[in-house]
Amino acid sequence: MQALPLPRSLRPGFSLGGLIDGRGFDTLLVLTALGYLAVFSAWPLVYNLIMSLQEVDLFSLASFDRPFVGLDNYREVISAPEMPQILGNTAVFVIASVSLQLVLGFALALFFELRFPGASFLRGLFLAGWIMPPLVVGAIWSWILAGDFGVLNYALKSLGIIDENIFWLSDPARSLWSVIIANIWLGVPFNLILLSVGLAGIPEDLYEAAEMDGATRVQRFLTITLPLMRAQLGAVISLGTIFTLQQFDLFAGLTQGGPSNSSNVMQYWSWQLSFQEYQIGLGSVISVLMIGFVIGLAAIYVRSTRHEQVY
Amino acid sequence: MDRLKGNALMLAGILLAAIYLFPLYWMYVTALKSGTEIMAYPPSFWPEDPTPIFGEVWTRLQMASYLKNSVLIAGGTTVLVVLFGTGCAYAMSRVKSVWIDVALFAVLMMQVLPSSLMVTPIFVFFNQIGLMDWPRGAVILAQAAKMLPLYIVLTRAAFLQVPAELEEAALVDGNSRVGAFLTIMVPLARNGILVTGVLVFLQSFGEYVYARSMIGTRELQPATVGLQSFMGPNSSDWSGVMSYAAIYVTPVLAIFVLLQRRIVSGLTSGALK
Description:
The complex is a heterodimer of chains A (311) and B (273). By secondary structure, chain A is mainly α. Helices cover 67% and strands 0% of the residues of chain A. Chain A has two domains: 16-73, no CATH class; 80-308, MetI-like fold. In chain A, helix 4 packs across helix 12. With 273 residues, chain B is mostly helical. Chain B is 78% helix and 0% strand. Chain B is built from 13 helices and no strands. In chain B, helix 6 (115-128) crosses helix 7 (135-160), helix 7 runs parallel beside helix 13 (238-271) and helix 8 (164-172) runs antiparallel to helix 9 (177-188). Chain B is globular, with a radius of gyration of 23 Å. Chains A and B meet through helix 2, helix 4, helix 5, helix 6 and helix 7 of A and helix 1, helix 4, helix 5, helix 6 and helix 7 of B.
């Protein structure tokens, strides 16, 4: 896009009239939105950090003068007996969700790229899963996964994969996987659509040239599709990880982190500490650590896509 | 030959979509089944004796109140987000400077903050300034902060599609900046604004974390919180739960079907920028 002839650089020092009509108008618009975000997003972040260094419980909740306890909260969280299990669960939840969403989403994207009649309509149907309230998705899956009368157990038994009913939600060995299954269902549409956009951007003649040179389907996939999809795959993986770490509603709808923390993850634990055990100082410690992780990840992602951006 | 292949692929595509959408189908089928049919083995995949209990569930669970609150929260959030975000998205699409880059980076970072982690400081902060006396308003304010970055990013992409020359012509013709923005730019970007606004509405219509954490009174809770307390830890009234879910999400699915094409293109245009 060509450079604009109108002078609209954001230099400090504009007149009051400029706010309405000159370059100050842009500044005003941007600052209004940023002001809102500063009060309701940025300040809570700072406040979170402060609270993580304080003793905050039901009694000191409304007080502005809470005792500082240094890094005591951090020590308490890190040495908590459930910490290793929940941290491990979080890693399994993220890695399993993101990788399986990616594999399924990519396979579906490749399939719908075959351009048969109705392909784009059928692909669009998958987005229905993306638009659903996650808590309702949790409710539906908790019925599908139900031990006695759940339809998944019936399907697996009919196919001869299992002999005994699996109690997905109450068996500590499976509970985390029941949330992962539902989360994959939620995440597949997003992967499918983003990867389809990437696939559509690969020039057709590359494939034709390779085919003429005698490249097999697998070779074409490995030497053309994969390298050219690097940016999209990176985007899907980083955004998938970020969205997976935001997942809360499925845990509330399916297992509530149980039984005995077998399906608990950091973001749910933080909420439990704050809103069920009222140890708000501890809740904010986990919140600070996890938000730091998510922002770090997002920053890496945004920086890595910078050179591809067209402003 | 090619036609045969195309039809075979289409059949496979229909099968894949059917497998994927099965949970939604199962929700509706279960909602229509009687109590005994739900416990039947093997399960029936078509209700033998459809017994709709939507009306009964609607009144017994006072869904009118829950849904009213959901609409209120989603509507309030959408209004706030559109008011605060549209101008910002516009300015960010037109101005090129280091400061705008920095601001855009900050917005992108705020887009990824998980609600379940933000709710702790937001709750204490709102509690201290007395906002908890208006719990639904508190949820709207928090949810708008969650949705605003997404709205700015997607709407900015819509404004980028509008040729700058149109606005410049309007300015040369004597329009003020405000006038050109409101009468030229916003109408030209209205498709993007509308689709993104609908997305914000739908997402907020299904909001759970903030409402669960900040709204204690039953009369003020939205449908997600209502569904969760109805299910409880060991519910077995599955036809009731699925009827509730069906009533709740059918409007969402209807809007989705109507706007599907636009939603897809709106999302993909902004998703990678």
